[in-house]
Design a protein that fits this description.
This protein is of the alpha+beta class. Helices cover 48% and strands 19% of the residues. It has five helices and six strands. A hairpin with a 5-residue loop joins strand 5 and strand 6.
């Protein structure tokens, strides 16, 4: 009978260890997933034009403008981000990635910035940029002109 109790304890300890190991593996996988999803603004360079704001009221107004023409925004490789000085959230068109924050690009507490494919700030505004004005700004950029020319060939 003593051997059975010991075997039972070993089984119980084994089950506890197994559960703990499964938990550690799950946490590790979730952490790795978060790390691979996280990006920095520089990772968008040459891939996306960025519209970013540091104000939640401007975010809502700008998001309303962008949702009016998702095709036009997609053609212009445009994404929309919100900065709260500690982190940056990708809020449009789809996912919500959390990026390291960078408040040094903003000159004012209420600003919307347009960042070109090269990573440079192309336009600043203290109010939401209309879809028409935004698309006109982007379409006047040399790289966008080259994209449109290539698409028409």
């Amino acid at each position: 009978m003593v051997e059975d109790k010991r075997a039972g304890n070993k089984t119980c300890r084994h089950m506890k260890c197994s559960t703990i190991m499964k938990g550690i593996v799950l946490i590790t996988l979730l952490t790795i997933n978060q790390l691979t999803m996280a990006q920095e603004l520089k990772d968008f360079r040459w891939k996306n034009r960025i519209l970013i704001t540091n104000n939640s009221e401007l975010k809502e107004a700008q998001l309303k403008e962008l949702k009016n023409d998702s095709t036009g925004s997609s053609e212009r490789k445009l994404i929309f981000l919100l900065s709260d000085h500690e982190q940056i959230k990708k809020i449009w068109p789809t996912s919500v990635d959390i990026l390291p924050g960078n408040s040094t690009m903003f000159k004012d507490e209420n600003e919307v910035l347009l960042i070109g494919l090269d990573g440079g700030v192309k336009y600043r505004s203290e109010k939401a940029i209309s879809k028409k004005e935004l698309f006109s700004l982007i379409d006047s950029m040399p790289m966008r002109a080259a994209e449109m020319k290539k698409d028409n060939e």
